[in-house]
Automatic annotation (TrEMBL):
The gene is metX. Residues 48-356 form the AB hydrolase-1 domain. GO terms for molecular function: homoserine O-acetyltransferase activity; homoserine O-succinyltransferase activity. This is Homoserine O-succinyltransferase. The keyword Coiled coil does not apply. One of its GO terms (cellular component) is cytoplasm.
Length: 375
């Protein structure tokens, strides 16, 4: 991987905050750590900082690779780097692992000071609002008063939207991609099925599986399989797998017959090998709870009246998890408040995962918008 198309070798960093953080639930974290990475250089007046927010299974590792694991490439490496749409020659880019994560930030895998054991299920539920509050602490630590932009896809887009509401004077541009102002009942239902798969695993032990020396691998594997189906489009699955048989003939058994079955099992097994089940439960609940309009009797324009940023909102034609209609809800609410919005509805057959992929039209739109952000 050459310097021309990658940020290259990166080193994760970690910072501790000892001032208590009161969560939306009312619980208080006496202190916490956040893992993060940075790419590019912060300019003299600190006006070129961009925060990239991750989705459900993401992390602070947005771009580049590690010295001891060059195959571990950042999840948005195709977007972030020298000469890429989010150009690190212009911008100082930050990726952070959210509270409750399992990649170095304080979460269920961390040691609870009072017991000397892992938090496990005792780690309090965190929300999108809590993540943004914690990210603001990181911005303070880095001396960043205002973000040039905050962007993310899916759950990351919800965080970008929340930044514009919780800290309207600290964000100039909010880029909300493949996201929604709140989950539909169907989406909450998918999340609940995934959670029940984990909770009903005999190895879950009420979330304290670490104390028993086991992992709820079967439940987490099934949860990921359910989730993964919703990230793909029907046309993409038909094109990649169709009804292809794994062994060229029907086996008349409950083992793998079709290639799509093999693919889902592979994705489930891979995910269950590195992700924490309690973190997965928490992330899905954060998705469910996000609803800025809740305190405004469901009226989204009233909820978004606090925003001052300029917005880029993008959706994808085959994304049925966060359909274009959900992005248009955000756009219309912003327009009712007289805010400046660029909206793109991109024709792409990859479903919800489109925001992670190399679609030329999508990347050209991102590049054009980002190039017009003054730094």
């Amino acid at each position: 991987m050459s310097p021309e198309n990658s940020v290259g070798l990166v080193t994760p960093q970690r910072v501790r905050f000892d001032t208590p953080l009161t969560l939306k639930s009312g619980a208080v974290l006496p202190g916490f750590e956040l893992a993060y990475e940075s790419y590019g250089t912060l300019n003299a007046d600190r006006s070129n900082a961009v925060l990239v927010c991750h989705a459900l299974a993401g992390s602070h590792h947005v771009a580049g690779f590690y010295a001891d694991d060059r195959e571990n490439i950042g999840w948005w490496d195709n977007l972030v780097g020298p000469g890429k749409p989010l150009d690190t020659h212009r911008f100082f880019v930050i990726g952070v692992n959210n509270l409750g994560g399992c990649y170095g930030s304080t979460g269920p895998l961390s040691i609870k000071p009072e017991t000397g054991k892992r938090y496990g299920a005792d780690f309090p539920l965190v929300t999108v609002e809590d993540w943004v509050a914690a990210q603001a602490r990181l911005a303070d630590h880095l001396g960043i008063d205002t973000w040039a932009a905050v962007l993310g896809g899916s759950l990351g887009g919800m965080q970008a939207l929340e930044w514009s509401l919780q800290f309207p004077d600290r964000i100039r541009h909010a880029m909300v991609i493949a996201s929604a102002p709140k989950l539909s009942a169907q989406n909450i239902a998918f999340n609940e099925v995934a959670r029940q798969a984990i909770i009903s695993d005999p190895d879950f032990h009420g979330g304290h599986y670490a104390e028993h020396g086991v992992l709820p691998t079967r439940g987490l594997r099934l949860a990921r399989m359910v989730g993964h189906i919703t990230y793909l489009s029907d046309s993409q699955m038909a094109e990649k797998f169709g009804r292809q048989l794994r062994h060229g003939e029907h086996k008349f058994s409950y083992d793998v017959d079709f290639e799509i079955e093999s693919y889902l099992r592979y994705q489930g097994n891979k995910f269950a090998a590195f992700f924490d089940a309690n973190t997965y439960l928490m992330m899905t609940k954060a998705l469910d709870y996000f609803d800025p309009a809740y305190a405004y009797a469901g009226h989204l324009p009233s909820a978004l009246a606090r925003a001052k940023a300029r917005f880029f909102v993008a959706s994808f034609s085959t994304d049925w998890r966060f359909a274009p209609a959900r992005s248009r809800e955000i756009v219309f609410a912003l327009l009712q408040n007289g805010l400046r919005v660029v909206y793109a509805e991109i024709d792409c057959d990859a479903g919800h995962d489109s925001f992670l992929l190399d679609d030329q039209h999508y990347h050209a739109l991102l590049r054009a918008y980002l190039e017009n952000i003054a730094v």
